[in-house]
Amino acid sequence: MNVPCVRVPRESGEATRRHLADADLLDHDHEITVSEGNLYIPIVDADAVPSEFEVVDYEPPSRETQTTPTDVLGFEPSYERLGDIVILDEDDPDRAREIADAIVESDLKADTVVNRASKIKGELRIRDWDVLVGESTETVHREYGHEFHLDIDTVYFSPRLATERHRIVQQIRDGEHIFDMFAGVGPFAIPAAAAGSEVVACDLNEAAIEFLRENTTRNDVADRITAIHGDVREVADDYEGWAERLIMNLPHSANEFLETAVRLAGDECVIHLYDIQHEDDPFGPGLNAVRAAAEPEYEVEVLEEKIVRSYAPHEYNVCLDVRLTKP
User: Fold this and answer.
1) pTM for the whole thing?
2) 3-58 has which fold?
3) What are the residue boundaries of the SAM-dependent methyltransferase TRM5/TYW2-type domain, all occurrences included (predicted)?
4) CATH of domain 155-325
5) H helices then E strands: how many in the chain?
């Protein structure tokens, strides 16, 4: 029997599946199927699928019954996947252990199960973990056809931003000069380079830069990325006026680096400024900070105001896309 499916190239399958899962659109009664390099992902409501995805009729096999953590527990646990790691966020250690044991008993593929043991801390944005199953906190995460080797114990990485990262990459022009000011292991920089840009990627976390350099080779973009360990405020001395696009993914404190961003900007430059703000005015503080740093040297034009996700009660993680142009 034919059912509606989203058809995507195989290399984009996992990111697309996650996007559809977040929107509660997956049809769990049928199997995801591969055919001639494409992935067919069964969905429950074709009209609710974002227009960026192609919906077709296809006849996937019915799903064989698998044991899920929910089947074992009798309730639906909350968790996040990052490569072969399952991440829990439970305040009760006994409940976390119960969920970890259920994951092991289920058919969910996981080499490691961890529970968040602290908030993100320090200028390197890392956190403590309780390792409940397995030993290694290293994994390889796959996203829109790219692979990222990382260790959650030493670097920051959020799989929840996959769709947002893809939004930025789709705007990139071939040959564009891009400066990723807080690059991490390369989830923005590597797809940007693969899209044909020349990228300078900087981070204060030495472990992140080591993984980034490995990932440039893993993804065959080493010739288009310059990876630099250091404080971007000092690195900027060598790249004043170079950038045509700046990525500032450091919520809570990116505004503190806007003067550096203006130094890096060329005659025309797009800035993607990530921020955490209250729902009453999610974009005003960021825009005011950009204007204070850039005017009158640059004219400031707002291109897009994007709510990326809910961060906390009454707070949003947002992205402000602005263009700076010298008069």
Assistant:
1) 0.80
2) Alpha-Beta Plaits (3.30.70)
3) 79-326
4) 3.40.50.150
5) 9, 17
